[in-house]
Each structure stands twice: as C-alpha cells, then as structure tokens.
C-alpha cells in the first residue's frame, strides 16, 4: 500500500524544529553543528568512556580495556607514574577542549569560564604530553619508530597550543582559532586510529602471516599468566627464559590475532599501531589545513574583530575582553558559516 508523501506542513515543522537543536549552543547553521557533533562528539565520548574505566580501576583487570601486555609496564616504576600522569591529565583536557569550541560558551556571559577553562586545558595538555613522553619507550612495543611518532605528534601539539596562547595574548583571535583547531586535530588522530588499528591488525593476521614483532619473554609470560605450557606453544624462542638462563630474553612473535592467542594479538597490534599512527596523524595534519581554508570566511571575520579589539586596547578603552555591548552588537550582525561568535577555542 502506497504511503502519502509528507505534507508541506510537516516539512515546515521539521525545518523550524531543527534549529532549536543548535541555536541555543550558538551555532549559526546545522552544518557547523554537525561537524562539532562528529569531531567534538567523538573526542568527548573517547575521553569520558576512558575516564570511567580509570575511575573504576578496570583497565588492567579486563582484557578488552588495554592492549595485551601493556599493563606489565604500566603497573611498575616510572612507567606507572608516566602512564597515570598522561591519563589523568589528557582525558579531562580533551573533554574540556571540546567545550571550548561551543560558540555560546565564548560569549560575554561565559567569558570567564571560557578563559579559565582554556588555561586548565593548556596546563593539563602539557602535563599529559610529559606523561606520554615518559611511557613512549614502553607503549605498544616502544620501538624507535614509535617513539619518533610520539615525539613528533607531541611536539606539534604543544607548539600549536602555545602559538594559540601567544595569539590570544596579542588579541589575534583568528590565529588563536586556527592554532587551537590544529592542536586538537593533531591530538585527535589517536581517536581516528582506533578502528583503523583493529582493521589493519586483523588484516595482517594469519597462521602464515609474514609479519613478526620482537617481544620480551617476560611480557609474553605476563600475557599468558605464567603458563609455560602455552609459552612453549606460542613462543618457543623463550626456552632460555623459561629455564631461567636468560630472564631478559626476547623472541619474534607472528602477527596472528585469534581468540585464543593473545600473544599473536599483541604482535599484530604493535605492528599495525606504528603504521596506523603515522598515517592517521598525516591525515589529521592535512585535514585541519583543508578545514581552515574551507572556513576562511570565519577567519576573515575574526580578523576584523581582532583589529577592533586591538584598537580599543591601544586607546585604553578595553583590555580586549568581550564586553556585553560589543557582544550584543555582534549578535545583530549575520553569523559566519562556522557559527562561532567571537573565538573558537580557549582564551
């Protein structure tokens, strides 16, 4: 039985209802709101989900919440400290950073929150990055290629943050927006690479896989919960470790992710992590530049706002902060395509 097409009245109601979803948050159009939901929503979901895991202290007790063998390193010594510094700082920073991009929280009514939150994000980001550098030599195999990737992404992230900070101090709001976008696009590659990592790790896994990863036998022992019988089957190269002749022995493990082979899963993930990390970081680095150029109209608008603020500061009429009067005047002007009011990130 054929159904009647939607009536014009229902279409009008839908078009009127849709802006009610994003107008209160300060977005000028659904396109901007959709982009925020996709990029910001993924980051917020990633952060809040993992924060709960660490609060519940279930990261190492459940195999699906940590990479195989990672908790061997992150439960002892300096690596434990670096791990918790990184997690406790960077996850809240990622969540708060997303709030900084909500236009309604950038206006005069919320200016103090926006500014204080921005400083908190900056501080937590630096602390979290220090933690990442500490654990880089152990995380996901800790190869030199991986350490180089962590160092590169961390350096670019911190440089972008401080360029954003320097820009807002000079009242260059357009540059502040661009550098904050760069910083969190750089950081966001870790979210993008999660599904990519799983896909690549599964793709390279097989009983005849040509891909092998060197792993310390003590980590393999940890993964297998001390079962030397399983170690003999999955890692026969650890014979000297099992007899106690060489406690620091390493062996090559084939990438073979199966339900009953956590060691092969660890090898597949460690191999895939390096490739996926570099590729996803490159995509994010290029992608943010494309996005900035696509929203050049917003940069031009913010440049005019910056010039006005700088002029007021030079005349001693304002410290450059958004005032109630200037904000109200701007609300009467057409909003830009990205939907931000005055700034697009932390001050």
Automatic annotation (TrEMBL):
Region of interest (Disordered), residue spans: 312-347
Q: Does the keyword Cell inner membrane apply?
A: no
- Which residues lie in Low complexity bias regions? 335-347
UniProt key word Transmembrane: yes
Where is the chain membrane-spanning?
25-46, 83-104, 116-136, 142-162, 183-204, 267-292
State the source organism's domain of life.
Eukaryota
Compositionally skewed regions (Polar residues) per UniProt: 320-331
Which keywords describe this protein according to UniProt? Answer: Membrane, Transmembrane, Transmembrane helix
Its protein name is: Microtubule associated protein
Instruction: Show the taxonomic lineage.
Output: Eukaryota, Fungi, Dikarya, Ascomycota, Pezizomycotina
